[in-house]
């Protein structure tokens, strides 16, 4: 019960606009520097180089979401183009994750479509890949529609599906052949659309992963849960699924020993690396996911 209250508390904080605005002035305090790779893309690239040297690939996320201003959306698109340029210039093994609301989905859908298309085209020039992050359920259908439009012309774009949604497995089946990152989900959603019980979410998570793998579709398994990782390893081996068809993913700053052990065992591994001034919402959702993360954050405050 206390865990649920804690989760709801931090999820509600994640959407507090006043605190989000204030957080931009604080800088990477409150332990956020432990899980956010810096304010600028140049800061983040130095961290990515270290990850690459250890055998880990990366995906870079310029933090920010729920933009309601046309100029902000335009600025986000330009920042995405710049980020792709920097990744190419430094020859790092890293792709780009983007949120459609940051590109203007709540401002004008056509504007957002223009922005995401420009990013996908620019990434294609560098033989790079764009991952469209899945956001809250209010934007779910719009995200899938835009993805399907892009996939008709471009193969260097994929998205994320969340196992806490009732329709998660159905959408995995619909998106056979599309590179997917499969996650449990980090937003607060209604019981009408999302499972509320951890056991149900975990069970659906494994089923979605297994289904996508059996559909011979590239699968990114995003979890810090060593039990689920062990289940995926066993399933892949039993069904003769080559390691080139999937990768494990974890968040920057979490479970580094486990990240490295998977690399050492010969598995493809990618670290999700967030950066930027707009770190507050992301950080609150990380605190909401596991009560242990609160202790982690407090330690970070006093380790400067």
From TrEMBL:
<dbReference type="InterPro" id="IPR015659">
    <property type="entry name" value="Proline_oxidase"/>
</dbReference>
<dbReference type="InterPro" id="IPR008219">
    <property type="entry name" value="PRODH_bac_arc"/>
</dbReference>
<feature type="binding site">
    <location>
        <begin position="184"/>
        <end position="186"/>
    </location>
    <ligand>
        <name>FAD</name>
    </ligand>
</feature>
<keyword id="KW-0642">Proline metabolism</keyword>
<comment type="pathway">
    <text>Amino-acid degradation; L-proline degradation into L-glutamate; L-glutamate from L-proline: step 1/2.</text>
</comment>
<feature type="binding site">
    <location>
        <begin position="223"/>
        <end position="224"/>
    </location>
    <ligand>
        <name>FAD</name>
    </ligand>
</feature>
<feature type="domain" description="Proline dehydrogenase">
    <location>
        <begin position="45"/>
        <end position="296"/>
    </location>
</feature>
<feature type="binding site">
    <location>
        <position position="134"/>
    </location>
    <ligand>
        <name>FAD</name>
    </ligand>
</feature>
<keyword id="KW-0274">FAD</keyword>
<dbReference type="GO" id="GO:0004657">
    <property type="term" value="F:proline dehydrogenase activity"/>
</dbReference>
<dbReference type="InterPro" id="IPR002872">
    <property type="entry name" value="Proline_DH_dom"/>
</dbReference>
<protein>
    <recommendedName>
        <fullName>proline dehydrogenase</fullName>
        <ecNumber>1.5.5.2</ecNumber>
    </recommendedName>
</protein>
<keyword id="KW-0560">Oxidoreductase</keyword>
<feature type="binding site">
    <location>
        <position position="198"/>
    </location>
    <ligand>
        <name>FAD</name>
    </ligand>
</feature>
<dbReference type="GO" id="GO:0010133">
    <property type="term" value="P:L-proline catabolic process to L-glutamate"/>
</dbReference>
<feature type="binding site">
    <location>
        <position position="286"/>
    </location>
    <ligand>
        <name>substrate</name>
    </ligand>
</feature>
<feature type="binding site">
    <location>
        <position position="99"/>
    </location>
    <ligand>
        <name>substrate</name>
    </ligand>
</feature>
<feature type="binding site">
    <location>
        <position position="285"/>
    </location>
    <ligand>
        <name>substrate</name>
    </ligand>
</feature>
<dbReference type="Pfam" id="PF01619">
    <property type="entry name" value="Pro_dh"/>
</dbReference>
<keyword id="KW-0285">Flavoprotein</keyword>
<keyword id="KW-0547">Nucleotide-binding</keyword>
<dbReference type="GO" id="GO:0000166">
    <property type="term" value="F:nucleotide binding"/>
</dbReference>
<dbReference type="InterPro" id="IPR029041">
    <property type="entry name" value="FAD-linked_oxidoreductase-like"/>
</dbReference>
<feature type="binding site">
    <location>
        <position position="162"/>
    </location>
    <ligand>
        <name>FAD</name>
    </ligand>
</feature>
């Amino acid at each position: 019960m206390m865990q649920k209250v804690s989760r709801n508390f931090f999820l509600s904080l994640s959407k507090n606009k006043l605190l989000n605005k204030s957080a931009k002035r604080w800088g990477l305090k409150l332990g956020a520097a432990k899980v956010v790779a810096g304010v600028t893309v140049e800061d983040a690239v130095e961290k990515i180089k270290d990850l690459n040297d250890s055998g880990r690939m990366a995906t870079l996320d310029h933090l920010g979401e729920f933009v309601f201003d046309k100029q902000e959306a335009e600025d986000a698109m330009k920042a995405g183009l710049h980020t792709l340029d920097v990744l190419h210039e430094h020859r790092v093994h890293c792709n780009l994750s983007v949120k459609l609301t940051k590109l203007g989905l709540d401002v004008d859908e056509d504007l957002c479509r223009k922005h995401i298309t420009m990013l996908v085209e620019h990434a294609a020039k560098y033989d790079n890949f764009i991952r469209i992050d899945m956001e809250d359920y209010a934007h779910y259908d719009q995200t899938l529609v835009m993805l399907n439009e892009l996939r008709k012309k471009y193969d260097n774009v994929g998205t994320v599906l969340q196992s806490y949604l009732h329709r998660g497995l159905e959408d995995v089946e619909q998106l056979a052949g599309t590179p997917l990152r499969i996650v449990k989900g980090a937003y607060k959603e209604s019981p009408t659309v999302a499972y509320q019980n951890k056991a149900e979410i975990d069970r659906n998570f494994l089923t979605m992963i297994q289904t996508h793998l059996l559909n011979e579709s590239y699968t990114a398994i995003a979890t810090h849960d060593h039990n689920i990782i062990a289940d995926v390893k066993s399933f892949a081996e039993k069904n003769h699924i080559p390691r080139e068809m999937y990768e494990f993913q974890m968040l920057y700053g979490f479970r580094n020993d486990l990240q490295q052990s998977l690399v050492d065992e010969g598995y493809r591994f990618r670290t999700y690396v967030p950066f930027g001034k707009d770190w507050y919402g992301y950080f609150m959702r990380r605190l909401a996911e596991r009560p242990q993360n609160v202790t982690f954050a407090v330690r970070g405050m006093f380790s400067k």
